[in-house]
Amino acid sequence: MVLNPQQEEFRERVALRQEGGVTAGAPVRQTSLWKDAWHRYRANKAALIAAALFIVLLLYVTLAPILSPYDPYAVDFAQAYLPISWSHPLGTDQYGRDLFTRVALGGRVSIGIGFAATIAIMGIGIVYGSVSGFLGGRVDNALMRFLDALYGLPYLPFAIIVTQLFQTVNFWVMVIALTIASWFTAARVVRGQIMSLKENDYVRAAHAVGARWYRVLGRHLLPNTLGVLIVFVFLELPGVILGEAFLSFIGLGINPPQASWGSLAQDGRDVYLSHPSMILIPSIAIAWLILCAFFIADGLRDALDPRTRET
After folding, report:
1. CA gyration radius for the chain?
2. String of DSSP letters for 192-228
3. Which residues lie below 8 Å from residue 237, measured CB to CB, with a gap of 6+?
4. What is the pLDDT of residues 257-274, one digit of tens each?
5. Cα distances (Å, whole numbers) of residue 110 to 32, 51, 182, 254
6. pLDDT digits (tens, 9 = 90+) for 200-210
7. pTM here?
8. Is the peptide bond before 69 cis (omega within 30 degrees of 0)?
9. In CATH, which superfamily holds the domain spanning 46-64+90-308?
């Protein structure tokens, strides 16, 4: 049987699909939003390197104090200000304590406060912003005007006041001080997302079948803001870390013998001319974390935003 050119071309395409292990009419393998976002994130080399460096930093602050042979709280003035060596990779401080171990312990405190305060900020912002955006009307107007009034609170001075209300400044006092005047922007971001999403057809369909407001909010609206919230966490984390470092640097941070990167930098402030590594090492650690968080947030924003998808 003689075939026309179109039929021959079709037969060749079918043969090529069968050679590649794909039969005609086979369904296309489906993907999910998160798989697609992961592929897009991997294409961003800067964000991928930042994520790897961020993981390295987390492993360092987690494992270094466990594996270190030195007691981070033992005082030995005979070992004070030792230079960098194999036995002390970052030298020692004014009390003869190993800085490699102390910086790791300080990183635990700083990163722990940063994540705890950021989670608290997001928790308050999600509740406040979702209620305001979902209910709308007079309730939304009243909540937003109250939020506008709270924006007049100065962030760092208010955090300083909070720390002075307690006799002992510990981990949770720092979390409260850094959270209490920092959740306003998170509430506005969540409110904007909820107001945008609640106009979609699937929300109207949920209302039409009799779904309660809390089910619509928790089942349909909040999960669709997850991508924006993840990006916001990594954008908020550097500000919280810097706030904690500033309070510790001026002597209002966690009380000794615990230390954070800010308090370690404060220890090196008085001897930075003779021993510059005392202030440079914790400062580099803070900069490392902040830069990694910004690059990760930038990569996540591009990966999770469908509007940046290539055609």
Report:
1. 27
2. HHHHHHTTSHHHHHHHHTT--HHHIIIIIIGGGGHHH
3. 114, 115, 118, 289, 293
4. 888 999 899 888 888 888
5. 35, 18, 17, 10
6. 787 788 878 87
7. 0.81
8. no
9. MetI-like (1.10.3720.10)
